[in-house]
Amino acid sequence: MIIELVDHADHEDAEQLAALLRSRGGSPHIVRWPGRWLILETAQDIDETWLRQLPIVARVVGSTDPHPLSGRKFQSVSTMIEVAGRWIGDGTFLVIAGPCAVESREQLAATAAVVTSAKASMLRGGAFKPRTSPYSFQGLGVRGLELLAEERLRSGLPVVTEAIQPKDVETVAEYADVVQVGARNMQNYALLGEVGRCGRPVLLKRGLAATIQEWLLAAEYVMNAGNPQVMLCERGIRTFETASRFTLDLAAVPIVKRLSHLPIIVDPSHSAGRAFMVPSLTLAAAAAGADGVIVDVHNDPASALCDADQALSSEEFKSTMVDLERVLAVLGRHVA
Fold first, then answer.
1. Contact status, residue 288 vs residue 263, Cβ threshold 8 Å
2. Rounded CA gap, 327 and 322, in Å?
3. What's the pTM?
4. Quick one: which of 100, 138, 173, 285 could link to 306 by a disulfide (CB 3.0–4.6 Å)?
């Protein structure tokens, strides 16, 4: 169950109630939520009626969900997240676009100019790149973050970029508007806790072989650390099929919408692994009810140092955005 304390409660009040619960055989966990204190109680035999009568308690949500904070029982209204004036989860459609990796000032500036002119919502770009091979391009590190910050000032687009180690989170959060957790780090619990404390919205990608429940539990780690601003990202899962890089699980969109109040976006680029599929999968994500997409775009895909096969060219991205606006218009939506 989730025990929500009254507005004027402080940490001492939460500690006192937790001690009282432990004396009754409970296993409480205190969570600092924005503007309030929560206590998560996993013991099944705590009397909810008794709890509701305590003056320090504002609300008790009985829930057997393994992911209580992200579940609909705790919050029935869908979460909306604001990033520099753009809203995620409010019915508009978020388009995050840019290069898989920041390679140079010239490459980033040229690509950012394209995604800005095509009216994307945010700029993506990897400064730290966890690659399958240790010999592949690993990103520019802090220099890449600096270039992203420069481009944010020039273009006005908020920046989304990935943190891959707990020690890097504070630095990434200094430069980024949204901190991304990649698929390979979905169950890096130390990292999840750190991004949960960084004060930035978090884009959490689904692991390569993760179930939806495991994915929501990963979100729970971030939220449990006090950060409710989590966006889930379906980026394809590993199946027996080899025609695409991964299998895009679009069924995850309505399933997550039913189970969780968190917004969900789709990554058609990493799931497909080949650029020709990305436009169709982008439109499919919109039709499935996703809150947005994150798309790889490069000013010269043939020369890209990271995932060249899946990057859209400037013209391909512009064409995709035109088609996307048409599909969204039919659905009564528009790009954020």
1. no
2. 9
3. 0.93
4. 100
CA distances from 227 to 131, 213, 219 (A): 27, 19, 10
Q: pLDDT at residue 135 above 80?
A: no
Question: How much of the chain, in percent, has pLDDT values that exceed 90?
Answer: 91
User: How many CA within 13 A on the CB side of residue 20?
Assistant: 14
> Residue 247's beta-bridge partner residues?
237
Tokens 């429940």 — which residue?
Answer: 213
Dihedral sign of CA atoms 259, 261, 267, 268 in order:
positive
Tokens of 160: 């989304």
**What structural domains does the chain harbor?**
2-61 (3.30.70.1140), 81-330 (3.20.20.70)
Q: Are 232 and 262 in contact (CB under 8 A)?
A: yes
What span, in angstroms and rounded, lies between the C-alpha atoms of 258 and 48?
Answer: 26
Closest CA to 216 of 226, 201, 231: 231
Q: pLDDT tens-digit profile of 56-90? A: 999 999 877 889 999 999 999 999 999 998 999 99
Return the amino acid letter for 37. Answer: W
pLDDT the model gives residue 56: 95
